[in-house]
Design goal:
alpha+beta, five-stranded mixed sheet, four-stranded antiparallel sheet, 15 helices, Aminoacyl-transfer RNA synthetases class-II family profile domain-containing protein, ligase, ATP binding, nucleotide-binding, aa-tRNA-synth_II
């Protein structure tokens, strides 16, 4: 509807604000894209992009070529997008500038086979088909296989498949006679021609039969929103057999599109919590990131500053890197307790109580490292406390187990890859007391 028509309907059905029951203002056009000025003189209008996928479609021909003129292939793009959001609320869920990621999977519409599809064809997802929306029904669970059988496109994009041998095919030929159509429909000739050329095979063959028997046929032109009369001298409809060496087809497109900011926001929302410190005087921040998405899988640090321990840290770091496990080395506040006590005892003016207090500060520095690890959302902390074994601490349970140096990378790998659970690891290794 045009704004005036919509405004008339609002008044006709007495539609008011659902909360206050106040009358609604007159509808008016609202541009969802940001308007700006571009060019050296600043007089040319421009609009900030509302999505990032346009570049993929513009470059389809090149992407198709780079893939050896074969389907399927996919292209991904990430960048800044802008929407003229009417109401800025709810944190990162409603913003005007956001990071958007989009993937376009181009596939052959007549050959969507995939060796792994039978494994997921019976999975059910909550769907809301068009016919259910029109009928006022609720969303329902539909098997993925049924949904795929119904995802199709009809717009040619220029992809083709060469046949090993020429094939004889029957083609529908619709040839509008533009001269006759121009005389009959004048300025509307183009819309009538386009509607005739867009007919499906069944509709075209029905029109052909009607024209041959009656000499004319009634034809609805949707762009004109009216029925027109087509005479048999206005269009030629036939089927021809021909040999083809290739076929052109429309690649169907599967487009996962998602805002990066919203995903991160939801991840923070579901992963963050606080828990009391050891002495109960403060609340400590923890991110309970699932290990599959955690940016850092584990931290490594020596219990105290020691040349041998530092060599073990480097050895473990090399093993983790070889296993493609992201890690962080924490070497802050790693002064040897032995060195600390000697330094403190050299100060004759320091009381025994002060010495004990400072020694305790360094002794429990490991707890602060665990706190930093938890706040980063890292699930595993590896503490090097000997040259042959280490202590592995799990973030959520705070349980600790001793693991040999040469085994620790494989233990972390099997849990982060989902091959084993932490419970499986606990079954194999005895736990330390916290």
């Amino acid at each position: 509807m045009f704004p005036e028509e919509l405004g008339a309907k609002i008044k006709e059905y007495d539609i008011t604000s659902p909360d206050t029951k106040n009358p609604l203002s007159e509808p008016y056009p609202f541009n969802l894209m940001f308007h700006t000025s571009i060019g050296p003189s600043g007089v040319s209008p421009g609009y900030m992009r509302p999505e990032t996928a346009q570049g993929i479609f513009v470059n389809f021909k090149d992407l198709y070529y780079y893939n050896g003129n074969k389907l399927p292939f996919a292209a991904a793009q990430i960048g800044q997008a802008f929407r003229n959001e009417i109401s800025l609320r709810q944190g990162l869920l409603r913003v005007r500038e956001f990071t958007l990621a989009e993937i376009e999977h181009f596939v052959d519409p007549e050959d969507k086979s995939h060796p792994k599809f039978p494994d997921v064809a019976n999975l059910e997802f909550l769907m809301f088909p068009r016919e259910d929306q029109v009928a006022g029904k609720s969303a329902r669970r539909i098997p993925l296989g049924d949904t795929i059988a119904r995802e199709k496109s009809g717009v040619p994009l220029g992809a083709h498949e060469k046949f090993p041998e020429p094939k004889e095919v029957e083609k529908l030929i619709i040839a509008p006679v533009k001269k006759e159509l121009g005389l009959a429909f004048k300025g509307n000739q183009k819309m009538v021609v386009e509607a005739l050329e867009a007919m499906g095979e069944k509709q075209a063959m029905e029109m052909k039969s009607t024209l041959e028997s009656k000499g004319e046929a009634q034809f609805h032109v949707c762009t004109l929103d009216k029925v027109v009369t087509i005479n048999k001298n206005m269009v030629s409809i036939s089927k021809e057999k021909r040999k083809e060496h290739q076929r052109g087809f429309t690649p169907s497109v599967i487009e996962p599109s998602f805002g990066i900011g919203r995903i991160i926001y939801c991840l923070y929302e579901h992963s963050f919590y606080t828990r009391p410190s050891r002495d109960g005087n403060e609340q400590l921040n923890v991110f309970r990131f699932p290990h599959l998405v955690a940016p850092i899988k584990c931290t490594v640090f020596p219990l105290v500053q020691n040349q041998q321990y530092e060599e073990v840290v480097k050895q473990i770091a090399r093993s983790l890197a070889a296993s493609e496990i992201s890690y962080k080395i924490d070497i802050t506040v790693t002064i040897s307790i032995h060195t600390t006590l000697i330094t403190l005892l050299k100060s004759v003016r320091m009381s025994l109580a002060t010495i004990c207090c400072k020694a305790k500060h360094h002794l429990f520095g490991i707890g602060k490292k665990y706190t930093r690890t938890d706040e980063l959302g890292v699930r595993f902390a590896i503490t090097v406390d000997s040259t042959s074994s280490v202590t592995v601490r799990e973030r959520d349970s705070k349980q600790q187990i001793p693991v040999n140096v040469d085994e620790v990378a494989s233990v972390i790998k099997e849990v982060t890859d989902g091959q084993s659970t932490w419970a499986d690891v606990l079954w194999r290794y005895p736990t330390h007391s916290s």
